[in-house]
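Action item from last meeting closed. Structure (227 res):
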């Protein structure tokens, strides 16, 4: 059986990843593709517990290295339990965040640097790389406004059960470092990362994503016809 395609979505919270990953999944399914949706942190029972810990605003004082280690613990479980089996079954895996997020948030935002992130990725994830990464980067102001509004609403509706608002409590300088690191990743790996920058409409972003994915699917089909 042909190995599947691994597509990741990246960007700051509030960049529209969730909306676009769901739209792409629907587009692919209409064309007969088998799709597996997942997210990080989360996507497994273990990962969901890690997500609840690392994103909850009550988890104060996490050391940057601890935060990064938790992200990779989640990722190791996801690769083993979800991503690799789905790829082996020939599915298109759409993952909301992967190691680029750790390089941007912990490497850039927490200023741990890229080297330690990439070394851990090679060790923990057997250096599994996405076939395509869709990096959504609207303006910083728009991303933060959306994320903070959404998470404040979610936190108030959950009341005492926790929230996912810990990162949104950081200062804007933290997010500027993350955004800059994402741009560095895109510049370093142009063959893998498709950068969609600017405040586009949902429809415009979807069309750009479909164009990028269609190109990658066409290249895959061509390789199968002429190995």
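Sequence:
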């Amino acid at each position: 059986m042909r190995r599947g395609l691994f597509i990741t979505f990246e960007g700051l919270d509030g960049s529209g990843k969730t909306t676009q990953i769901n739209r792409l999944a629907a587009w692919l399914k209409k064309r007969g593709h088998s799709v597996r949706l997942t997210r990080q942190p989360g996507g497994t029972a273990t990962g969901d517990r890690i997500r609840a810990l690392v994103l909850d605003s009550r988890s104060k004082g996490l050391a940057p290295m601890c935060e990064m280690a938790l992200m990779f613990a989640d990722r190791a479980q996801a690769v083993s339990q979800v991503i690799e089996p789905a790829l082996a079954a020939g599915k298109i895996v759409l993952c909301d965040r992967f190691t680029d997020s750790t390089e941007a948030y912990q490497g850039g935002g927490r200023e741990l640097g890229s080297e330690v992130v990439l070394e851990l990725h090679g060790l923990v994830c057997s250096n599994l790389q996405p076939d395509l990464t869709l990096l959504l980067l609207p303006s910083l102001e728009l991303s933060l406004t959306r994320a903070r509004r959404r998470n404040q609403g979610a936190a108030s509706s959950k009341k005492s059960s926790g929230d996912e608002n810990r990162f949104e409590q950081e200062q804007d300088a933290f997010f500027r470092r993350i955004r800059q690191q994402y741009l560095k990743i895109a510049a370093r790996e142009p063959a893998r990362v498709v950068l969609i920058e600017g405040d586009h409409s949902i429809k415009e972003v979807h069309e750009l994503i479909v164009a990028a994915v269609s190109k990658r699917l066409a290249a895959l089909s061509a390789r199968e016809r002429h190995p």
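Note appended to the action item: Residues 20 and 206 are 6 Å apart (CA to CA).
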